[in-house]
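Q: What does the assembled structure look like for these inputs?
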Amino acid sequence: MKPILQLQGVSKKFRINHESEPYLSLRERLSRGFSMKKNQLEDYWALQDVTFDVQPGDSVGIVGKNGAGKSTLLKILSKITPPTSGTIVCRGRIASLLEVGTGFHPELTGRENIFLNGSILGMRKIEIQSRFDEIVDFAETERFLDVPLKHYSSGMQLRLAFAVAAFLEPEILVIDEVLAVGDAEFQKKCLGKMEEVSRRGRTVLFVSHSMTTVQSLCTKCVYLEKGRSSGVLTVHEGVRKYLAGSHNLHTGHQQFDEPGAPSRAARLTEAKILNVQGKSTSELLTCEDFFVQLTWENLDGVRITPSIELVNYDGVKLFWSGDTQVDWDGSGKTERGPYISTVKIPANFLKAGEYSFVLGLYTQSPYQYHHLILSALHCSVVDPMDDRCLARGQMSTQFEKFMLLPALEWSNIKV
Amino acid sequence: MEEKSEYYIEIKPRNTFSLNLKELIEYKELFYFFTWRDIKVKYKQTVLGFLWAILQPILLMAIFTVFIGRSFAIPTGDIKYPVFVFSGLILWLVFSSGLANAGNSMVSNAQMIKKIYFPRLIIPVSAILVAVFDFLMAFLVFIPILIFYKQPVDVPQALIWWPLGLLLTVIATFGPGCWLAALNVKYRDFRYVIPFLVQVLLFVTPVIYPLSILKNKWLEFLVALNPMYAAITIFRIPLSPTVPDPLLVTISIFSSLLLLLVGLGYFRRTEMYFADLS
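A:
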């Protein structure tokens, strides 16, 4: 079978004009005598030699950090902007959803906007008419159909916008993170709709920052970094690359040297994350235990308690844990000298995601922190999506609403 | 699925210049939807609604008749001055508002251009079609005005020349409109140029005076370069037995077609980069 989409060495160059706005005023043009000084322009390659094939029916996640060129790639695929070089061959109609509600007009009613938006997205009037009831049903906005859009809540506008887009029927659908909006209930509905679309054999290209969504929706993955593509990978490889790439700056291992630091009663010298094999890493699996190991020094001979806090990607502090046992090895950690403290985070407890740790050394009484390091350690926990996930079991739902996903002990008695 | 897999497009750095009519026809409904949107939005929340399309030429006619027609005694031949002005004005308003709408259309729809693909030409064309809609409204008043001023009209001739006059107006608006739309994306100066241009052009177009008052052959040739000259002159043919100078009309039509070519060409050449510029 021929690939439905073939990208051959696609590159896109932008000219960055450091002096002024991207558009020119005629005065500037005239005063420069139609020859721009070259040194004011800088070439920026948003995409370089991107080559990959997409087979019919694939749903491909395009992942990469901000500025990796994802949006540019989508824009080229949607014909919004031409590539600087390279060719793309498509063997099907492409519809793109780079934003929901493109072309919505606040003065027009919901009904009118459905027609306008549908038509901008490339639907025929007859198509829209025949699916009109379904669209309205999906958007849950029947009562407001003849009210101008400006009186809609933003949530309602969004629902309406997505509903129109959801009923597009092209062979290739290109989507940019439109799901990242709306309330949880509606997000679920959208995800369901998208799964349905890809299951019906449509080819979907999906750009997202949410690895869980990519994992649940996509069968293939393309990882972009600084405008270069990895080629088509499995979802697992792609997600791993993304997570590895996003932690270039910080690792699962940190050393803290602070010459000339203020005098403290205790200080942290090293911290690392260890996986179940005892290897220092920042990539972990939800189904395996892992350890945080702190190396620290007691300088004053007071009683010291090491502690950690776990913070998720949204900055929510999930929990705090300190070594509150008073008489650890009888010394109470009161002797001067170096210590190594290790804390175990149990398997099947965290859900897949990215986390950072706050590390601390404190004295319980009088309560005082001697050393506190915010977001020193970073790790990503990946769901292997197989039967090792005790907490999730057979369920493929992503539990977006919850912070933790612990496998707790259940007991059942038939009565 | 079989026949759909025939579908094949290639996205390449720069397509060779072509109007790509096939694609425009594929998107024909969008012309309708954009025009319909602009008309709806234009008259929504206005008390008088579509009456505005009629009021504007009527008020202008009254002003020109009182202040210019009466004070200067302009020789308009067999056509009564108010009729002369009104017939010129309704076409002129298509040109002037079409030019203004089209010129700003790409910039005001920039958000959409950046997010979705459709043939960009639809935007300025729809903007001009809105002005044509206003013309049709105003035309409904044109007939009563003809009757009120007891203006003799050669009806069979009118059936030929009036539609042709409108067509020439649309063509005359189309070229400069697309050109300005594209230029405005690149050079925002044109936002200020357009209103000024429209104002100046009114005085070099025979809307409120006939070309004959110039009394200078060369000046007449110069004014005939104005694409609107032919449109308005042809539109007035059924109102008067005097035959207009065919040379001047031909010059004007050629100028109009030339502008159409240049405007469309420039638009097509730059449209691929609109999303990068706007």
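Residues 1-5 of chain B have pLDDT under 50 and may be disordered.
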